[in-house]
Amino acid sequence: MSVVSPVRDLVTFMTSALRAPAVIGAVAPSGRALSDLLASVAPAEGAPVVVELGPGTGVVSAALRRRLPPGARHLAVELDPGMVTHLRRTRPWLEVLQGDAADLQKLLADAGVDRADAIISGLPWTLFPESAQRGIIEQVTKVLAPGAPFTTFAYSHVRSFPTQRRFRGVLEEAFAEVVVTPTVWRNLPPAMAYQCRHPEDA
Ligand SMILES: C[S@@+](CC[C@H](N)C(=O)[O-])C[C@H]1O[C@@H](n2cnc3c(N)ncnc32)[C@H](O)[C@@H]1O
Q: Cys bridge to 30: 4, 34, 78, 79, which one at CB 3.0-4.6 A?
């Protein structure tokens, strides 16, 4: 039986974070306010295809489920096997694709999807080398439908660190529009989101 329990979510998250800190990249899942902000870019009407990258234990997935219309298709690409098992057990309504976001186009094609109406990322970008950041963002821009949003978050206290500035530069090269939201203070740690549209090479 699938039972969503915040305690079980937290234990799974922390177990994975301790086992593979270089993959998880955070000590706790995003809070509800940040999850709702990330989900807010997804279409709330029609039959959109929405893709998450790095859903972790599924807090942003739950925010998306609250927002998406009944006809939506909701997929999530997750690398960590422990997270995948947890998601399949606790969020049976989510289409979990086990794999690397670097292979996004192929993973989606194998699931019969060739475009996304929104892509929502929880990936730990600052742990990735710049080449990996560029590779994943290129995949994202290939899959996004025209005008569709891509969003991701960053912790506010590191926004001026070189690694974060470098990632923001990657986004600004890839997208004609990059909006930085105000800080969500009700998150541990406080974080903001990047909301990106209109890939430069589209
Ligand atoms: C910081 S957690 C974010 C989890 C959740 N979205 C949240 O906001 O709480 C990052 C997640 O990205 C996953 N991840 C890391 N690298 C990945 C990759 N290359 N492809 C897919 N998932 C990846 C990790 O396993 C982890 O579940």
A: 34
CATH superfamily of domain region 6-12+27-199: Vaccinia Virus protein VP39 (3.40.50.150)
Average pLDDT score over residue span 78-86: 96
* Interval 51-76: pLDDT, tens: 999 999 999 999 999 999 999 999 99
Q: How far is the CA of 101 from the centre of ligand 1 (A)?
A: 9
Q: Give the Cα-Cα-Cα angle 147, 41, 93 (nearest 5 degrees).
A: 110
Domain chopping of the chain, boundaries: 6-12+27-199
Q: Phi, psi at residue 94, to the nearest 5°?
A: -95, 135
Q: Which helix (H) or strand (E) holds 21?
A: helix 21-24
> What Cα–Cα distance (Å) separates residue 31 from each residue in 18, 38, 143, 145?
19, 11, 28, 28
Q: How far is the CA of 42 from the centre of ligand 1 (A)?
A: 19
Instruction: Decide whether any atom of ligand 1 lies within 6 Å of the 58 Cβ.
Output: no
Nearest alpha carbon to residue 149 among 120, 106, 127, 122 = 120
* Helix axis angle, 130-143 to 162-174, nearest 10°: 30
In angstroms, the CA 87 to CA 85 distance is 6
Q: What is the DSSP string of 149-199?
A: -EEEEEEGGGTTSHHHHHHHHHHHHHEEEEEEPPPBSSSSS-EEEEEEEEE
Cα-to-centroid distance, 76 and ligand 1 (Å): 10
